Amino acid sequence: KFYTDYIVSIVRCVQETEIIHVLGFSDTLFEYFKAADGTDLGVTNVVKDVVLKGVPTRIVVLQGVVQKAREHFNCSELEGLELENEGSSATKGSHWERRIIQNEIMTGNYQRDMALSVFTLSFLEGTGWYQVNYNLAELVTWGKNEGCSFINDKCINGNKEAAFKEFCNNFYSKASSEDCSFDRNFKGSCACLLYTSP
Question: Residue 169 above 70 pLDDT?
């Protein structure tokens, strides 16, 4: 029963993700976003290329997304919400950065308990094509109220320890450990590996 439920939840998540891509969450569609008056919004009002923690990164600067992210992370100076900066062309730039909002449905990974959050709903609203019902938003607790340092700082500190409760301390282990998830809702696993080259 657990395995069947898990497979069904993954299939549901993949289906929803692909529908959301078609609805506008794709870097090939940003140029078609509309302002409230029906004119083209312009890509520079949708995304911005920045360097964060020494890495070229694209952030979403749509007003609604920025407002929701500032509220969620408790960071009033947040300029935008990061898009994934790694992976293939199918992932990079067309998904939320997983390190920032782990279980959001539009991150480039699938796991149990994926959430269609206010971030994706405000993104879809920002396309200028849809009105959304925020009452349907699902909860994302990852990074909630962690402040600007959660966005701006590395997840591992100088002592090679997790800087926030969301990240694990099981460094350089060949096998993952099983523990409770950071929010104590699920059994989870964690492993951080040391790579000798990029």
Answer: no
